[in-house]
Amino acid sequence: MTAITCTYTGDGETELVHGPTGSTIQTDLPPDNGGKGRRFSPTDLLAAAFASCVLTIMGKMAATRKEQFEGARVEIEKRMAQNPRRVGEFVLKITFPAHFTPEQKKFYQTAVNACPVHQTLREDVKITVEVR
């Protein structure tokens, strides 16, 4: 289990601390929700997690197959929906290394569905809230 602590620092911003390492990330409200957009928004972090998850799995697949994967990229766009305000769509644009064949690209695309972040984006996810 990884503990992450989030503190509201004011003016629409938060700071997250990764318990095991002390690494920090700051967030801000996006302009389309009344914020200033000075940093990643919480939904930007969701998109970033999705893209990072996909590439991490692909990288692990490549290591297993002993294939060069450095330089692969995912550009992800999140599209917001309303009522309720949420992410309505993710558009992923994957750039594979230039030497990859169509067969390799097809194989690695399976990582999109295998990604735990993608698998979590479901309506039947249980949410537990603890108030202290």
TrEMBL record:
<dbReference type="InterPro" id="IPR003718">
    <property type="entry name" value="OsmC/Ohr_fam"/>
</dbReference>
<dbReference type="Pfam" id="PF02566">
    <property type="entry name" value="OsmC"/>
</dbReference>
<feature type="region of interest" description="Disordered">
    <location>
        <begin position="18"/>
        <end position="38"/>
    </location>
</feature>
<dbReference type="InterPro" id="IPR036102">
    <property type="entry name" value="OsmC/Ohrsf"/>
</dbReference>
<protein>
    <recommendedName>
        <fullName>Osmotically inducible protein OsmC</fullName>
    </recommendedName>
</protein>
<dbReference type="InterPro" id="IPR015946">
    <property type="entry name" value="KH_dom-like_a/b"/>
</dbReference>
